[in-house]
Amino acid sequence: MLPEVFLRVSEAKELLAGGAVRTVAEAAARAGISRSAFYKYKDAITPFRDMKRDQIVTMSLITQDRPGALSSVLAVFAKAEANILTINQSIPTNGVGMVTISFTADGAGGSLDDLRERLEALDSVVKVHVLAG
Q: What is the DSSP letter of 119?
């Protein structure tokens, strides 16, 4: 029951990933969609098998508004070898800001609880919530 464009974007992504084409323009043309349609939906369309393979975790952190706060958070993720997919940071108010980070946990060293505890141990982190994963 998916719109046809979603199936065609998935087809174009498979053509690119498999090396059947070299450019987005070629993939879009072979799949029968415009490049703009491909770019509009490419990040939202993921084959089920890929989603099942990679456990995507989303965490929300409340951090203090001070230089280096986000950098120290990202260093914890780097040390755990987590693959960060998205980072969204709000404009701080009243001395704190919200950071939402989505990442894959397959390569992360240690458990999710260990990662959360390491983040909470940072001076610049006020609170950590696991939203999904």
A: H
Return the CATH number of the domain spanning residue range 54-132.
Answer: 3.30.70.260
Q: Where are the domains of the chain?
A: 4-51, 54-132
Alpha carbon 97 to its chain's center: 19
Pick the closest to residue 57 from 117, 108, 120, 97 (CA basis): 108
Q: At what angle do helices 69-79 and 112-120 cross, to 10 degrees?
A: 150
What is the DSSP secondary-structure string of 14-78?
Answer: HHHHHTS-SSHHHHHHHHT--HHHHHHHTTT---HHHHHHS-EEEEEEEEESSTTHHHHHHHHHH
pTM value is: 0.57
Residues 78-131 have pLDDT tens digits of 888 888 999 999 999 999 999 999 988 765 556 788 888 999 999 999 999 888
